[in-house]
Amino acid sequence: MAEKRVSVKVGSRTLSLSNLDKVLWPHDGYTKGDLIGYYESVASTIVPYLKGRPLTLERYPNGIGKQSFFEKEMPKGMPDWVDRITLPSDGPRSTITYVVCNDAPSLVYLANLAAIILHIWTSRAKTLDDPDFVLFDLDPGEKCTLRALTTVALAIRDLLGEIGLR
After folding, report:
1. Cα separation of 59 and 69, whole Å?
2. Model pTM?
3. Is 58 within 8 Å of 70 (Cβ atoms)?
4. Which helix (H) or strand (E) holds 152?
5. What is the pLDDT of residues 65-79, one digit of tens each?
6. CA distances from 8 to 15, 88, 141 (A)
7. Are the C-beta atoms of residues 148 and 133 closer than 8 Å to each other?
């Protein structure tokens, strides 16, 4: 089946987007075009939080009910205008080139890759050793109820308050 492509202007860039009618959320019927439209509509709000931060992409090329994969290394074929940073790695490669999403066209381009979740670093490229926020990832599970998680979240909030953090 041939890939359906459409050219779309985002900011000063013209992007070639593909398969906009591909369903990524089968239970709700939301498509890749819906994801792209959503990311474009929130770009002015979300880009300041992404700006300057290396990203790991979590891609769902066949929708959220199917196999996903994490991608640290910038995908092949990424346009030259998408910002990036190359950093040393302890893994099999000596370096990893990460995507840095600094503008709306880059965000839309990533959505076109079905990068539904963008995992950001807690620091920015210019200050990698100085994170500017902390993230507590609290996940409910079989033995951890939402009630227990709420208790933990409130305890963390209280402890942070005791040392003067909001």
Report:
1. 5
2. 0.85
3. yes
4. helix 146-162
5. 899 999 999 999 999
6. 5, 35, 41
7. no
